[in-house]
Amino acid sequence: EEITEGCAPSIMHYSFDYAQQVHFLNNPLQTGPAYCLTARKCQPFEVACEPTRVQVNYLIDESESIGKGANATISLLHHFLEEHGIQEANLLLHTDYCVGQNKNNALVHYLMWLIATERRQSVQLSFLLAGHTKFAPDRNFGLVEKAYRRTRVDTISCI
Q1: Which SS3 state, helix, strand or coil, does residue 81 take?
Q2: Which helix (H) or strand (E) holds 132?
Q3: What is the mean pLDDT of residues 105-124?
Q4: Chain center to CA of 67
Q5: Which parts of the chain are beta strand (E)?
Q6: In Å, how far are 30, 70, 109, 150 from 33, measured between CA atoms?
Q7: Residue 108: Cβ within 10 Å count
Q8: How far apart are CA 75 and CA 110, in angstroms?
Q9: DSSP 3-state assignment of 14?
Q10: Which residues contact 26 (CB under 8 A, 6 or more apart)?
Q11: Helices then strands (H, E): number in the chain?
Q12: Sign (positive or negative) of CA dihedral 4, 77, 59, 138
């Protein structure tokens, strides 16, 4: 379906996933180990809008993380839909086959809540086949990781 300016499409396809943790401080020119005993960690989460190729990356500092479970996934997905979504009537969601994060009753209940509160008319949740986890968020994380390896990172805002 074509997306036109000022008009929300009736259906939108989003993909979401977590990436591997990113460590900072990072200096590609440094030859030896960093001066910290342990690098600080950041947990990336991405929601990609497939038709427009727009992505939103959430970077969660280790001091603010609640893990990668259902609560964190639902909170981040809800924030994306409320703040960055285009208020489409029907959602098509793609995610990987991770039971703890995505394939659970809490996420299904959240999606049912979206319909019950009339925020959406329909929601379709699809999972990638086990072992086949290459989709938009993985591709986008790869691009971010490639740039990360060549860039000096001192704080989470540098990522």
Answers
A1: helix
A2: none
A3: 93
A4: 14
A5: 11-18, 22-24, 40-49, 54-61, 90-95, 122-127
A6: 8, 35, 46, 16
A7: 13
A8: 10
A9: strand
A10: 39, 148, 151, 152, 153
A11: 3, 6
A12: negative
> Do the bridges between strand 11-18 and strand 90-95 make them parallel or antiparallel, or are there none, so unpaired?
parallel
Q: Which of 78, 82, 83, 89 is nearest to 8 (CA)?
A: 89
122 phi, psi to nearest 5 deg: -150, 155
In single-letter form, the type of residue at position 60 comes to I
At 73-112, the pLDDT tens digits run 999 999 999 999 888 899 999 888 777 666 788 999 999 9
Convert 66-78 to b/e letters by CB count within 10 Å (16 or more is b): eebebebbbebbe
Adjacent-strand bridge partners of 42? 22, 61
Please tell me whether residue 106 adopts helix, strand or coil conformation. Answer: helix
Which stretch, 16-20, 39-43, 49-53, 119-123, has highest mean pLDDT? 119-123
Residue-level pLDDT at 98: 76
pLDDT tens digits, residue range 10-41?
889 898 988 877 766 655 555 665 555 567 77
